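Researcher: Quick sanity check before group meeting.
Model: Go ahead. Protein one:
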Amino acid sequence: MSADYLDLPQLLRARGTIQLPGSKSISNRVLLLAALADGATELYDLLVSDDTRRMLDALDRLGVRVEQFGETDFRVHGVGGRFPVSQADLFLGNAGTAFRPLTAVLALAGGEYRLSGVSRMHERPIGDLVDGLRQIGGRVRHLARDGYPPLAISPPEATRANRVRLRGDVSSQFISGLLIALPLRGVETTIEVLGDLISRPYVEITLATMARFGVTVVRDGWRAFSVPAGSVYRSPGTVHVEGDASSASYFLALGAIGGGPLRVTGVGSDSIQGDVRFADALQQMGARVSRGADWIESRSPADVREEGVRLHGIDLDCNHIPDAAMTLASAALFADGPTMLRNIASWRVKETDRLAAMARELRKLGALVDEGADFLRIVPPPGGLSPAAIDTYDDHRMAMSFSLAALGTPLRINDPQVVAKTFPDFFARLAELGDPVPVIAIDGSSASGKGTIAARVARALGWHYLDSGSLYRLTALAAWRAGASLDDEGRMAEIAAGLDAEFNGELIRLSGEDVSDAIRSEEISTAASRVAALPAVRTALLFRQRAFRRRPGLVADGRDMGSVVFPDAALKVFLTASLEVRALRRHKQLMGKGIAASIENLLLDLSARDERDSQRSVAPMQQGRDAELLDTTNLTIDTAVAQVLDWVKTAPKIG
């Protein structure tokens, strides 16, 4: 995986079983509650990610002793509500599940603290939480802009106030943070919710985990929550963290779109997480879903190989699944009819403005999208998804949600490392469950028969065909027409990235003009070989080549198809032939087009090109260790094609 991007092949189907990582929401809650409790708590199956590391780092700086005794298992020695360190600067990145509750807890803990994060965290509002804390004596100052981090916290003022009035329509994390902090006061305190409370399932998680640590909150529906006087957190001894229900949504949708069956384990009908109701939304879209106490399984409405079998669009209030609703937006790309997602205004104050970002990236794939203050309406493209490079906005859920689009098109995910926030090995797990569109890569020396054999194999199989060399020839032709120097690598890459190329069988167009013959001249062929040796040009053309990988399969010919462009090709073939035979073939080809040429000059040209191609620093021409060698010196085209098709029959990843 590149640091800058990850290219996902189009997937034919998806199936299998995945054990989910621990829930982020539960992990950071139990870490903080274990730290505040009396006694030591052993936490099993904790999520290990950027967000939980932020919480662990903060607890360490506050003097809480935490021991790791397994890959995902930790022992937290509680401090009984009083942190040993009363002065600290805490950097919390973009972890809202750490920043909001720590703000509330530290505001009532009696110390001097400074909380900051990345620039995006400083754009996420926290003014309502600060206002609520001030109502009960909290002394919290905004250090830059009113209503936003960074924050400075001082010991609270003495006050008899025992009621906090807090808006419920901004972030449920404000309610959760206050609830977790209130036992530190020692007196009964009530939170009165003004208006409707969004993201209620996350408050349910908070109430359930607090009860696990000995504090039972008295509630009046969703209007008020009271923490009794004398409430104290006590260690339950051990806590097993559920799998992450939000992460489950990506794989359940994958199974619903890609056939399945796809089972997620670690979360099921006994879960305390509201995002398990994402499975209900999939059922409304027509998916087949089954459940157990700690597993959920999804399938598409019918076998994915049946034509016309799709999900159908729905109209849904997503207040109960705000994070998982992002996955529904991507699933909507595979539905018949529009999908309306309502009551998602909270998306705008997350890691990015998710509403605007989701609309922008869905449109790249060809969807028609209406974006409102608190809704998205998505109409899937009637002609299928378009290949696109998806920007992720430093937001893990953007990267994971849009990975579903690989079931409809080759895809590039920019900045894929953002998934480390909650699911560091997400893309590796995705690859284990998806069956990619198969590729046959045919490589070899010039005039060895690559193009002719590859085209005939593609026709025999009914697959797509890519003459990758034409892209480099088109770049060379476009550069020549623009008067650009072949030695100007930056300019060559710019031309390659902007090619207006069209392939239709043997017909090749550049900016609408038929250039099928023009790009085959010896002058352009020589120039194309030079252009292909430029790393920046190869990078510019890489995703364009991979975008040809569409169902049911692709036959790609070119000198680095199996080594660089499609290293996971199901079958790799390397063609060769004697220099004399290749020269005769090229001579016959040129004479057939009325182009004068001499055998002697062609021998010299091919020999020089072989030397140049074998010595280039990027993707030198050579047989890969996993490629089948086919010497065509004494073979007819029909015989060579038959041999490749025989190899296809025995290739394990085809069929």
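Researcher: Fine. The other one?
Model: Protein two, sequence then structure:
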Amino acid sequence: MGYATRPTVRSRKNIMQRRNSCGQVWVRLSGVTLATIASMAPLPQSFAEEFPRVATVKTPPADNRIIVRSVRNLVEEGHISQEKFDDELSKRGFDLFLRQVDPMKSYLLQPDVDEFRANETLLDDMLQKNNISFAYTVYLRFLERLNEVTPIIHELIDSPLDFNVEEYIESDAKEMKYAANLEELKDRWRKTIKLNFLSARADGDSDEKTREKLHKRYRTYYKTRSQTDVYELLEMYLTALTTSLDPHTTYMAPREKDNFDMHISLRLKGIGATLRPDDGSTIVEMIVPGGAADKDGRLKEGDEIVAVQQDDGSPAIETLDMKLDDVVSMIRGEAGTKVKLHVKPKMGGERQIYEITRAIIKLEDSAAQSEVLERGKKADGSPYRIGCIKLPSFYLDMEGARSNRQDYRRTSTDLEAILKKFNDSNVDAVVLDLSRNGGGSLPEAIAATGLFIEYGPVVQVKDSNGRTQTMNDDVRSITWRGPLIVKTSQLSASASEIFAGAIQDYERGLIVGDPKTHGKGTVQTLLDLAPALFGVGATKPLGALKLTIQQFYLPDGRSTQLEGVAADVILPSMTAEMDLSESDLDYALPMDSVKAQPHKDYSMVDSAIKQLLQQQSTARILANAEFEKLLGRIEAYRKQKEEKRIPLRESDYMARRKELRSEKEEEEQLDPKAERDKVFAANFYNEEVLNVAIDYINALQNANKLVTK
């Protein structure tokens, strides 16, 4: 989770000269489907011609060959491993692509895969010829199976199911084999539908309601996969090949690249809403506070957008059964332009037409937010004042920076302003929450670290030639001198690990949370393919390549790759048990180390303080009823993770579910909407973080190490 600048380069030498970039794990969270109305010109009325469906074309668009050649050359010339695509990478890419097309082995049959496997070691040779016909062969076969299997699924949903027979369904897709024939696949789907009914019954839903939901779910899935366009398929295929080198070298199709730019800059151009698909309909999921739709006031959460009309006199385009990305693209547009939304209100009534003027919207929910909480009592009877900061990413408005705007958005500026307010309001300690921070801008992570240290090395970066460069905080000042607590988890990755690791190496602050962070210690650059190939004036978007070019290391020389940053005080949590880390990803690069760089030690954390704070925290946790429940859920979750089969007899399933619903746990933990409107949520876990902060203040005071402003 992070980003990189977009040099327009054609050679490895030029790539290596761009050192102010940092990559990110681009995590796609399960259980949530949201599309943000983001920057990008609206699609023309004939968008189907611009984004043809895979199902309707016989040959890939001409520009696909250009994209393939560019991606292949840039990867082979610039990737940190300096590997060339060969038979081994071909085999890896083959497996990864099949996994992308049919992740649960629910549609393709073993004979299909056997037929495809004849090309298992030939994908590298095809790549050298800019040939992606194999992607079409596989996906068109997948669409054939989708057409065959979908009617069977709906038939099974309406068929009687026996919930008293003892049988099981496999839960590990990697261990699962493809069905040998259609009859075997039908039986697998029977078990899958049965599992869906059991899960719904456990949630208290009626079978009638479940049938309705399942019909809608699989109709939507069918429509979405049937409408896959040629650039989405190209992204799937090229990414399968590039991630055979490492998990973070990926190709982004033009639309995905625009979404990426919006995410990292915290700015979007549009109406300010998020949408979700619902059985072919487009539903408003959320109105972005302060956005154009919010200020207009008419569009509401839950409304259905039934048609979109541009402000050029062209007719409205109906959205029923349209892919969500296409609806989003029609609503997007430059600030100041208008779009007409034909809306069926959630509250009922006739179809309405809302004309909304698009605007630039700042995504405040993704920026640094703060609050001051008061807890406990000092010796003089006054409460401790803890300044809490939620930082979801290390963001940087790259467009604003390139334009030299004075007010462009960046993490370090926002953090500095917050810390100065904390100084003015006599805050005793700062808790910086990076527990959901997936990374972002490396320069901003360095600048943010500099707010807590006077100066010195923050990160070391090594390229594929083994050359190491040290990147310093050169600003000889410090904004916050007092106690610092950094809250982390396995979701803390990339740039957030650089920040936390540097703070730890300088003995400047305390790391609290999961046993370790994510473990992403590689650096990516983002190469915009059109300017790279045709110059700055190129207008046709060709997408971008996110390329791993370097590995980073902390001031003391250790890499965060795979091992992450270890917590000084460990708190039990569900995220620590999930397979979320870099080491859980396929083909992650190995961990190593470089020479340590000299730097100041602030001596605000030592082994004695860490041991004391862990003991005090553990004692509270063992006496806390909420943590006791959490520990029980964690133990049940561990057991369920080890299970290879799920029982489908209702009595057995309900007994299992009574212990824990592992899928629900993961969805709740990974839901990006969780705690969206809160800076530091009031819950037992965060209360313990605040308790640790108070213990830390007292420990520093007792050791005569407490620094005040």
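Researcher: One line on it for the slide.
Model: Residues 133-158 form the longest helix (26 residues).
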